[in-house]
Amino acid sequence: MMAYSLKPLITxxxxxxxxxxxxxxxxxxxxxxxxxxGLGEFLIRSALAHPQRDYVGIEQHQERVTNALTxxxxxxxxxNIRILKIDARLALERLFFPKTITCxxxxxxxxxxxxxxxxxxxxxxxxxxxxxxxxxxxxxxVIVTDSRSYIEWILGQVKxxxxxxxxxxxxxxxDTKFERKWHSDGQQNFYELVLTKITHQSVPVKKDTPLQxxxxxxxxxxxxxxxxxxxDITVIFKEMLFDPVKDxxxxxxxxxxxxxxxxxxxxxxxxxxxxxxxxxxxQSFLPTPGVARAIELVYxxxxx
Length: 304
Ligand SMILES: C[S@@+](CC[C@H](N)C(=O)[O-])C[C@H]1O[C@@H](n2cnc3c(N)ncnc32)[C@H](O)[C@@H]1O
Known about the structure:
CATH class of the largest domain: Alpha Beta
CATH superfamily of the largest domain: Vaccinia Virus protein VP39
CATH architecture of the largest domain: 3-Layer(aba) Sandwich
Bound molecules: S-adenosylmethionine
CATH topology of the largest domain: Rossmann fold
Structural class: alpha/beta
């Protein structure tokens, strides 16, 4: 397997959020975004064809990110691409300042055809409002799909999002894996929806939740029984490791909330006469209300 450069990959957990993209690219240039870039074919081709623009590719699937990084390493020339491995909903909510994106592309988004799965579809009304707020005036969103029912569903979501829309059928022209797949299966035309921003929707950037640490006078790891919590914020206990030499416990939790599920470790460490309950060092996560709640729950449990 070919080695690949991690240089284009932005570890969003470790940079200042929202991201000032001109600093990441070391220049001011029109900023385009592709969601769900798959193998990265369109992203890389666009970046090579338009060296005067900057491109951020968002993809949540690790293997596809690795594939695209390998492809980028091979082409070398594409220095105007940065990659985010994250759910696009979180990225748009937290990582982009309002009014910064010129064009946003999403080619062959997952159509989630089953009725019970419609809730997973990306271009819901709420997401379109977030996208609108991050776009520049007259900025364009291009969505291409093979699925008529998905495009019709999106049209039902566009109301009150500040976009004007234009729908047409187009022949294959994006040359991505999924376009080739549907074309070779016999589909001759696809649906191309272009949304143009005409009025601004104000959706503030989601901020990090401050994380507290807590102090305990006593802590007995043998009496630590964490009760899982379910609801808007779900916190599930996985395990606790305790090192009696270092007087240190590590509590592994899974925290699930609105659009994000994170594995998270809380440490309980003795410092002098006090046990400190806080986020463990050296992990990657986004500081969300769920993570803050997880620390509080560990603190409450450790007190018992
Ligand atoms: C059907 S594939 C299309 C890939 C590529 N655009 C193409 O045309 O070949 C959909 C892609 O979107 C990605 N994806 C789906 N939902 C996403 C989300 N919420 N955030 C980021 N990527 C997402 C998937 O991992 C997958 O790679």
